[in-house]
Amino acid sequence: MTEQAAQGRIERAFSHDALILNAPVEVARIVAFLRDRVLGVLGRRGAIVGLSGGIDSSVVAALCARAFGSTKVLGLLMPERDSSADSLRLGQAVAAQLRLTTIVEEITPALEALGAYRRQREAIQTVVPGYGPDWKCKLILGSVLEREGINITRLTVQDPNGKTSTVRLPPEVYLQIVAATNYKQRVRKMTEYYHADRLKYAVIGTPNRLEHDQGFFVKQGDGDADVMPIAHLYKTQVYQLAEYLGIDEEIRQRPPTSDTFSMPQDQEEFYFAAPYRLVDACMYAIGHGISADNVAEAVGLAATQVQKVFKDITSKRRATRYLHTRPLLVDAAIED
Predict the structure, then answer these.
(1) Closest to 147 measured CA to CA, from 304, 283, 276
(2) DSSP code per residue over 54-122
(3) Strands lying side by side in the sheet with 101-104
(4) What's the confidence (pLDDT) of residue 158?
(5) pLDDT the model gives residue 12
(6) CA angle, 283 as apex, 60 and 50 as ends, to 5°?
(7) Which residues, in sequence order, are CB contacts of 57 under 8 Å at separation 6+?
(8) CA distance 224 to 228
């Protein structure tokens, strides 16, 4: 093997070290970016952050507190009847740690008025006729590492006695469940912009790179914001910043959750179908021309399993392209 070929082989190798950040430098860079864009470019006075008790919103809140001072960051807690009590508790805890002003906006009445729960229930009743208001549910995907062929989303329901069952969903039923559930993210974002308008603050988004790239957000919901300060960071890197910023260990140890359905559910079973550390590694590898064989050796999996994750990442990018699309214009409406 020539020296040049050997060097090329080294460059294509994968190591988890590639995802290690210089946390102090990255925090300083993001804080400077926030100050410049929010105060300068957008001309706003502070920041609105929706607090979910999760790692992403906690890190974003901490970054905003450093950028604008705690008195110029409003933390919004927006529970609804299906939310985990831990989300509200941990969201309040991080706000207290950062000394942020908070407002609790209970969005259940708005969702009821819009028919969000009713529309979801009606869709589920087409496949589980006995499903009622006192039942619980969640959507699940099988592991991408184990599946053969297309991964189909299934519905798990739990009756009032605690008995669970899982059924496959026809496409139209799946779409209606998702459409009804998406009201939650859209009502939250509408509430964030209400407070942003009255305070002349900017709405700060919380999606990380994994969520943003793979379309794990709702259009005009949690996918909307004035600034998204961590959308360039892999989930692994968000955890690194959380440790540096001193985010409470309970939040750092909490599994990533969607907190969208009435049954407990983590992001892996709901959408990503693989552990976030593995998806991070595979996404990095795809972006840097690293082969599945090299990733497999580093993560301790078979190359065929890593190839399945590669394929899933590419498939999600293709399927969610619509979510990233801005309104399409016949002609440019504003001259540069």
Answers:
(1) 304
(2) SHHHHHHHHHHHHHH-GGGEEEEE---TTS-HHHHHHHHHHHHHHT-EEEE---HHHHHHHTHHHHHHH
(3) 101-104, 73-77, 47-50, 202-203
(4) 97
(5) 65
(6) 20
(7) 49, 50, 51, 91, 94, 206
(8) 9
Instruction: List, as one string, the DSSP characters of 234-257.
Output: -HHHHHHHHHHHT--HHHHHSPPB
Domains of the chain as residue ranges with CATH: 13-112+181-324 (3.40.50.620)
The pLDDT assigned to 132 comes to: 94
The tokens describing 48, both together, are 């609105």
Side-by-side strand order, sheet with 136-140: 136-140, 154-158, 164-168
Consecutive sets of 10 residues in the chain, 336 residues long: mean pLDDT of each? 43 83 98 98 98 97 98 98 95 97 98 98 97 94 75 91 96 96 98 98 97 94 97 97 97 88 86 89 95 93 93 93 93 72
